[in-house]
Amino acid sequence: MFIKQVISFFTLKNEKAKTELLHLKSQVNPHFFFNTLNNLYGLTLEKSDLAPELVLKLSDLMDYILYKCNATKVGLSSELEHLKNYIEIEKIRYAQKLKIHFNIEGDPNQLEIAPMLLLAFFENAFKHGVSKSIKNPFVLINIQIHENNFHLSIVNTRTPDLKNEED
Fold this sequence. Notes:
It is a single chain. Strand 4 (138-146) and strand 5 form a beta hairpin. It contains four helices and five strands; from the N terminus they run ααβαββαββ. The protein has helices at residues 2-45, 51-68, 76-94, 119-127; strands spanning 74-75, 99-105, 112-113, 138-146, 149-156. By secondary structure, the chain is α+β, with helices and mostly antiparallel strands.
């Protein structure tokens, strides 16, 4: 009887984790895709040569999110490669005025994380920092990996006297 209860407990805990992951993905994806499609719309209105590149990067991200993120964990190196696509999309959006520094110390191949866990941090760096900045916008992303420890630091431009009702 005790073994059945233990197995039942771990089954419920696993199901809860899967449900939380699906909930996270459902929150992030529509917001991200809406913003990216708006960016693409603006580029097409301008008849920009960057529109095809944006479509390709968005397609790669959609493929990752829809078909490759179904596991409870993915390799950190894979997650970071797809986040680089996101950064490239933001570079296209903000053109030359945005300065980005993206640094990784350590070996991302040694760790696994929940898929899409980091995207919200990256998105918020642009949404609440760069988009609100008038002069010299920047995003500094530093990732340090040491043994089983992962440290993410994101610093962005933000004018402190601006009030944002979403905060």
